Amino acid sequence: MVELDLTIAQQAAVFEQDIKKSRFILNIARVANEEEAQTFINDIKKQERKANHNVWAYVLGKKDEVQRYSDDGEPAGTAGVPMLEVLKNNQVHNVVAIVTRYFGGVKLGAGGLIRAYAGTVADGIAEVGLVELVKQQEVQLTVDYSQFETIKYWLEQHEYQILAVDYATEVVLTVGVEADAITAFTQAIENQLAGKVTIVVGAERMVERPYSRNISAKTTSLK
Predict the structure, then answer these.
(1) This prediction's pTM
(2) Which segments of the chain belong to CATH 3.30.70.240?
(3) For the domain bounded by 134-207, which CATH number is listed?
(4) Which residues pair with 130 in a beta bridge?
(5) Mean pLDDT for all residues in the chain
(6) Pair 213, 90: CB distance under 8 Å
């Protein structure tokens, strides 16, 4: 599996659905550490204190170095674990998910609970969307006015993001380039402009890029 640095597209989001008369409410949020995750969980539990269950799971780190979950009274392995697996299987990182259940009178059984909790997290993630976190560096290109349209067109055709254009004695374009592609980028620019360019590689920054994928609700319990 290709390693991706993915997270949800919003800082926090809510998703709700009814399954066989039970109400399932997903609250999901980005978090940077366990303190933030636990604070979010406790806030939702206070908000939904009349609920039958507040099941939660979270993953932290690019390689899910921290993984935690709680079934909160549901049968072991039917709630928190499926939620955790959905986060991991879809490579969603640094996220806490809490699913609140208001029991509607119809028992779902073990398989039904797994599908309900895993499905609520998967459907919620699909609705809010994902972004990929990409490390870029700001690269300044200084060119003559006669070269400006040529390099601007080339950058647009190759889908590089022009962050700023400064019109002075010469034109200075600031471009966002993925950190691991700097060498190839600078060589391509020099070739394109026959060396008539000054290139300065600047600071690193993290950017969010929309990422599209089908969100799977599969777990080890439900193949």
Answers:
(1) 0.82
(2) 134-207
(3) 3.30.70.240
(4) 8, 211
(5) 94
(6) yes
